[in-house]
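Interim report, section 4.2 (structural modelling).
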Amino acid sequence: MSTTTATTRLPGTLAIGRRRINVELKQFFRDRNSAVFNFAFPMILLVVFGSIFGQQELASGITFAQYFVAGMIASGVLYTSFQNLAIAIPLEREDATLKRLQGLPMPKASYFIGKIGTVFVTYFAQVIILIAVGVAFYGIELPQTANQWFTFVWASVLGLIALTLCGLAFSVVPKTGRGASAVVTPIVLVLQFTSGVFFVFTQLPEWMQVFASFFPLKWLAQAMRSVFLPEEAAAFEVAGSWELGMCALMLLVWCVIGLVLALKFFRWSSRGND
Amino acid sequence: MAHTAVTVRDVRKRYGDLDALDGATFDIHAGECFALLGPNGAGKTTVTEILEGYRTRDSGEVSVLGQDPAKPSREWRSRLGIVLQADRDLGDLTVAESVEHFAGYFPNPRDPGEVIEAVGLVEKRKIRGEKLSGGQRRRLDVALGIIGRPDVLFLDEPTTGFDPEARREFWTLIEGLKREGTTILLTTHYLEEAEHLADRVAVISRGRVLACDAPESLGGRERRSSRVSWREDGARAEVQTMVPTEIVRELSERFGGEVPGLEIHRETLEDIYLELIEADRGGDHPHPVVEVDIE
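Predicted structure of the assembly:
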């Protein structure tokens, strides 16, 4: 190709990525399904469960609401990353969003920047509202130590990365956009029930505990409990401690699994469309 | 600018037992509007999507703006505008938001406000995509197709579902783009649209180009006979002729001026098109004609 003097530079990957975050956020909050089920749902559950069981004491000085908020924050990671992407991307494949993007001078990385940025922004907005509601109405106490805040940050970030990658990979499973939530929601619910989000983990049947320990949500919820529960509560965990090293390791393993699966399976177009 | 914007040489594409493209060959000159006509399943969308870089070909040579679409670069993509068939995305964004968003993907985009005006959506600029009518939605797609100031614009059945007035407005828009030197590949079911807009048309059936010429010359149209008919002795008389003007002059002399109920019918593009498709179906081609939706 001969280069002409009129050639202007193409916008950068990050610049287009920022534009994508911007429109993805608009689309996320304007779509009633995602605004309710990916964003507001943990708040709704906190209000329901907090109002019914909130002030019951699980042990001296530890209310159910305090236990539950840790599980809801871990669930928030799952909702804003995995559930959101595994439902939204099949729809994007169906309504030609991805086909349009493929035909534009957009680096593919910009699309993923848009998705990851949206996941992070929605998650942190959700956590702030969740904690504010918890503190205002259900007597939730904030983490006291810098270590706890540090755990909150790394567990959030590792969980978001792992489950975003899993969501990208899983987005090829639903056959239609409309049917996606029917495939994704049961998985999310089973993980929540078995990972100690709704019930105290050590009170679950042992096989359930074993099942959950293969998946990231159990470890994420455990790390979040270490953030929101007092140090003594570690005695009630399965191992008698928070096992933060193990939590970090399992989340990292799921980052790697998610990355491998996403690289192998993520598709821009529907099957057989080449 | 290159003299030939698009080259398609003996391109083949097979889906299972079906030859979607069976040696399709044509050129599109820089700056012309080229229309692809053909029945459903003829291969129009397949060849268009190969040129757009969406699909791969099994064999043959393809070049768009001097590059192979199978190896798309961002620079190359920034010179194309693509209007796909019936998009349903962007329902949650307003017209203005969508147009402004995608302008940011291109090195030298048109002004979003001007583009919205050009497609006649100024009053709808604050309306979300999902609230637009079918015709308005197509105009949004066209706006997004031209926002990047493309050298080549692909329009796949752009006016499906338009009312006659919207179609006229759309034609005016496309004529404006042609005047600016945009090369346009148009696929359409509407023969009057092809006749109105296209410098050349290609009729495609079962993956092969049956004829390719200016609309007024396609299939030897200008050399075909015309039918002159008139009213005489309470009945219609008609004559098939190569010299209709001569016939009319004779009739005019005979009737001493006005010829009652005079009609001259030249073969329309539609007549030629149907004849070509019919001849192809009756031909020696071994495959049955099936409509397949390769989506």
